[in-house]
Structure to design on (319 residues):
């Protein structure tokens, strides 16, 4: 998520200026004309081409089919849960598209033996922190994975909101071309699902972003309708001291016994891209076992004494 810090070079004495030939000046003008700023449409097309290549690489990898199966298992369990609670799942979430020939043609051809994730145009998606995909290979693979997942879930791209404060104007233009809904404001992860089943795709985000998301949806009803693909909550609990976790990220600490976590497969090809990534969902049976005091705690996180926050805060405007 964090942009690379620029390196400051020491001041150097200027060398005597040399006259440049007309041919050299001409070559420099031609090179300048080929910069992204001079031809943004061509550069946008180049990024889109690299994204398609990243999608192709994913589709032929063992990682993609294994990761899709992991997500599929989680979403099926969650939909079964919602069906048991509401008894109106077909109307609320649309038809399931599991293994039928019609759904396969709608979402694209499946790999041999691959089963489609449950699909519905009413399931929404939010993506935080995918990073600078125009220049970073790992970020581009993460975005490619998101696009493939939307297709397999049959979630229209317009139903997927994306945001990262490091997005460049070029990357925003690419996302708009892909028909994704780019958010204009840094929500710091504090987005309510508004009662609608929502898939959050948050690869390698800062811990505070997950904590903020849980805080904003801190109820049994809301959490039971959420799925989070992101950093392993179990891994966070193992790496952070208990006192730091409870003080700085209390909602992650409190939800530890109220969720089920399925780890992403680990393959050498995508080890740096999806390491420590899991799918999290919240079974109602586990949520019901949380104490009333747990649900009564609703203090908004402020991170005043938190070091190494790992997220970019929303800019405060003068009153």
């Amino acid at each position: 998520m964090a942009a690379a810090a620029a390196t400051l070079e020491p001041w150097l004495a200027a060398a005597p200026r040399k006259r440049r030939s007309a041919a050299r000046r001409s070559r420099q003008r031609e090179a300048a004309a080929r910069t992204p700023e001079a031809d943004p449409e061509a550069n946008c097309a180049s990024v889109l081409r690299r994204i398609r290549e990243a999608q192709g690489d994913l589709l032929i990898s063992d990682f993609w089919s294994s990761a899709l199966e992991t997500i599929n298992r989680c979403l099926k369990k969650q939909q079964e849960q919602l069906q048991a609670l509401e008894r109106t799942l077909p109307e609320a979430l649309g038809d399931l598209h599991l293994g039928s020939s019609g759904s396969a043609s709608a979402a694209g051809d499946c790999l041999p033996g691959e089963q489609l994730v449950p699909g519905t145009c009413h399931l929404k998606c939010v993506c935080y922190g995918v990073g600078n995909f125009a220049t970073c290979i790992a970020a581009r693979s993460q975005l490619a994975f998101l696009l493939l997942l939307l297709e397999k879930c049959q979630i229209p791209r317009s139903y997927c909101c994306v945001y990262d404060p490091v997005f460049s104007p070029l990357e925003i233009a690419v996302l708009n071309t892909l028909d994704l809904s780019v958010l204009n404001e840094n929500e710091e992860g504090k987005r309510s699902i508004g009662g609608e089943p929502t898939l959050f795709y948050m690869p390698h985000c800062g811990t505070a972003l997950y904590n903020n998301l849980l805080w904003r949806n801190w109820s049994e009803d809301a959490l039971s309708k959420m799925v989070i693909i992101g950093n392993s909550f179990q891994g966070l609990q193992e790496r952070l001291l208990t006192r730091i976790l409870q003080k700085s990220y209390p909602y992650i600490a409190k939800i530890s016994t109220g969720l089920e976590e399925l780890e992403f497969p680990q393959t050498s090809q995508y080890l740096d891209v999806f390491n420590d990534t899991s799918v999290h969902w919240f079974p109602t049976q586990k949520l019901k076992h949380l104490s009333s005091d747990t649900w009564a705690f609703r203090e908004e996180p402020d991170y005043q004494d938190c070091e190494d926050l790992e997220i970019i805060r929303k800019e405060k405007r003068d009153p």
Remarks:
- Residues 124 and 159 are 5 Å apart (CA to CA).
- Residues 1-37, 95-115 have pLDDT under 50 and may be disordered.
- The first strand starts at residue 124 and ends at 128.
- DSSP finds 15 helices and seven strands in the chain.
